[in-house]
Specification:
By secondary structure, this protein is α/β, with parallel strands linked by helices. It folds into 2 domains: 8-129, Response regulator (Rossmann fold, 3-Layer(aba) Sandwich), CATH 3.40.50.2300; 137-338, Orthogonal Bundle (Hypothetical protein af1432), CATH 1.10.3210.10. It is built from 16 helices and 7 strands. The chain has a 5-stranded parallel sheet, sandwiched between helices. Helix 1 (16-28) links the parallel strand 1 and strand 2. The longest helix is centred in the middle third of the chain and has 20 residues, at 156-175. The protein is elongated, with a radius of gyration of 22 Å. The two termini are 38 Å apart. Bound molecules: fe (ii) ion.
């Protein structure tokens, strides 16, 4: 969980003088500044820190600032990207904006303007990032039901699994006091997290023995495939990012992008825990189900490496508490009841 409230800015700039001046100015304004002089360094920070904004020079010694922007967007990170350019060339600025940069600064720029530029992009992102309530909930729910039915037809194990993952995710969401819209996004992410398995060959999906290298590689593509399927629906952009990252590990050794710690979206960190728990206690053709206690011990053992330790502790506490209602009603169930 992100407890640090200081706005975290990644500053990517190879020119020492500009770097120091901007860094000093940012820190003076109370921003928390992460510095990178190269593209490679910037990518490393991006993978491990929960950033709020990227301020990036377009000309870097080992590449172009646009390459970094492409990576930010590929990771489906909703981080405002402000391009710094030394050139007044309109085409360069136009290209940057067309590729998804939110704003730009032309060098030399007045450092006094920095906080205004940063704040207006943070506010814009907040408005943009707040997907709010989907306009046509009933249509959306029918679409989701159709997607789940398609996956269930292919993989019978997934049917009950997604629903149980959603209920457990909701338990954690309730304990974190998420808003109704956040709970809805978390539930939809849980229901659809394995939707990318639609694209997986049956012989891999149903294989009971261990997978060959190539098969394993194909199986590991399902988060990216799933996020692309869901990303086609405007209202599910937030869900798409969570699906992409539900197999990241807290220590950075997961896939597809090797994000670590709080750089992994919060809801994806929740899903990783409840998905693993559900798999451990479920009956599979190739192994016996384990008891709740055994499963919780396994989660505990992997807290801090595979899973977010704080969220794991919270989930374990909830499941061990005799008063916890283990089958909370899902928001989607009440919406289905209300749908015309
Ligand atoms: Fe998965």
């Amino acid at each position: 969980m992100n407890t640090n409230t200081a706005v975290k800015i990644l500053l990517v700039e190879d020119d020492k003088v500009t770097f120091r001046a901007v860094q000093r100015s940012l820190e003076k304004q109370g921003f928390s500044c992460y510095g990178a002089r190269t593209l490679a360094e910037a990518v490393r920070i991006l993978k491990h820190e929960a950033l709020d904004l990227v301020l990036c020079d377009l000309m870097l010694p080992d590449g172009n600032g646009m390459d970094l922007l492409e990576i930010v967007r590929m990771f489906l990170m909703d981080i405002p990207f402000v391009a710094i350019t030394a050139s007044e060339k309109k085409s360069l600025i136009r290209d940057a904006l067309r590729m998804g940069a939110n704003d730009f600064l032309t060098k030399p720029f007045n450092l006094d303007n920095l906080p205004t530029v940063i704040e207006r992009n943070l506010i814009r992102e907040k408005i943009h990032g707040d997907y709010g309530r989907p306009r046509k909930v009933s249509v959306l729910i029918k679409t989701i039901q159709a997607l789940i039915a398609a996956l269930e037809a292919k993989d019978s194990y997934t049917s009950g699994h997604s629903m149980r993952v959603a209920r457990h995710a909701r338990l954690v969401g309730n304990a974190l006091r998420l808003s109704d819209d956040e709970l809805f996004t978390l539930e939809l992410s849980a229901l659809l997290h394995d939707i990318g398995k639609i694209g997986m060959p049956d012989r891999i999906l149903n294989k009971t023995s261990s997978l060959e290298d190539m098969e394993y590689k194909t199986a590991k593509e399902h988060p990216v495939v799933g996020s692309k399927i869901v990303g086609k629906i405007d209202e599910l952009q937030g869900v798409s990012a969570i699906i992409r990252h539900h197999h990241e590990r807290f220590d950075g050794t997961g896939y597809p992008d090797g994000l670590s710690g709080q750089a992994i979206p919060l809801f994806a960190r929740i899903l990783a825990i409840v998905d693993a728990f559900e798999s451990i206690v479920s009956k599979r053709t190739y192994r016996k189900p384990k008891t709740t206690d055994e499963a919780l011990n396994e989660l505990e053992k992997n807290a801090g490496t595979q899973f977010d330790p704080e969220l794991t502790a919270l989930f374990i506490k909830l499941l061990r508490n005799k008063n916890t209602n283990l089958k909370p009603q899902l928001k989607i169930e009440s919406e289905m009841g209300n749908a015309p």
